[in-house]
Specification:
Its cofactor is Mg(2+). The protein is of the alpha/beta class. Helices cover 39% and strands 16% of the residues. The chain has one domain: TIM Barrel, CATH 3.20.20.70. Strands 1-2-3-4-5-6-7-8 form an eight-stranded parallel beta barrel, surrounded by six helices.
Length: 213
């Protein structure tokens, strides 16, 4: 499954922080029912076996809803679970190396904070860019901030889809209007909510409006 600009509208990144009585799969399915267009499984603390087990569940779930599914950082888990691809940061392996491991038909997303990083990622074969943090975020305290002007410049400099990430929620998403992004990536704006499906529906509508403005 390949990604396009439409699949970038509302990109969900998982987080175990707000699981409570629900499993991660239950929360993600609520988001999928609400209209999430892309899912990234982000696990920093699970061992390999548990991570792979979770990845296989997510693969089945996302396939059911025809939504692209990638793994954060871990190429080995992406291969073993037959995920649609992987998302890597600037400190991870080069796009070309990841591509040689995954193959031509898989999705590779890359985090970027500058125009130069964005152009290089596209040249090396990235399928989309995640740019941020555009607002302060509690889920990644070490994230560098990216100005709206830089975000605009990145969108103008590349042809591949661009999503903004970092502290985006229903109260500030419309501030990103006019930047040229194709959608937003969110974590707490979905998964800390008691009604994830309704929160997703609301953010989908807001993201569509943001892109049009």
């Amino acid at each position: 499954m390949k990604c396009d600009k439409k699949s970038m509208l509302l990109y969900a990144v998982t987080d175990r922080t707000w699981l409570g009585v629900q499993t991660l799969a239950m929360q993600v399915e609520e988001a999928l029912m609400g209209g999430v267009t892309f899912v990234q499984l982000r696990e920093k603390n699970l061992d390999y076996a548990l991570f792979l087990e979770e990845a296989k569940k997510m693969k089945v779930l996302c396939k059911k809803y025809h939504v692209p599914f990638v793994i954060n950082d871990n190429v080995d888990i992406a291969i073993a679970s037959d995920a649609d691809g992987v998302h890597i940061g600037q400190s991870d392996r080069k796009v070309s190396e990841v591509r040689s491991c995954l193959g031509a038909d898989k999705i590779i997303g890359v985090s970027a904070q500058t125009v130069d990083q964005a152009i290089l990622a596209q040249q090396e074969g990235a399928d989309y860019l995640g740019v941020g943090a555009v607002f302060s975020t509690s889920t990644k305290l070490d994230a560098d901030s990216v100005s709206f002007q830089t975000l605009k410049s990145i969108c103008k400099a590349v042809n591949i889809p661009v999503i903004a990430i970092g502290g985006i929620n229903e109260n500030n998403i419309l501030e990103l209007s006019g930047t040229g992004i194709d959608g937003v990536a969110v974590i707490s704006a979905l998964f800390e909510k008691t009604d994830i499906k309704s929160a997703t529906e609301n953010l989908c509508t807001l993201s569509k409006n943001m892109i049009k403005l």
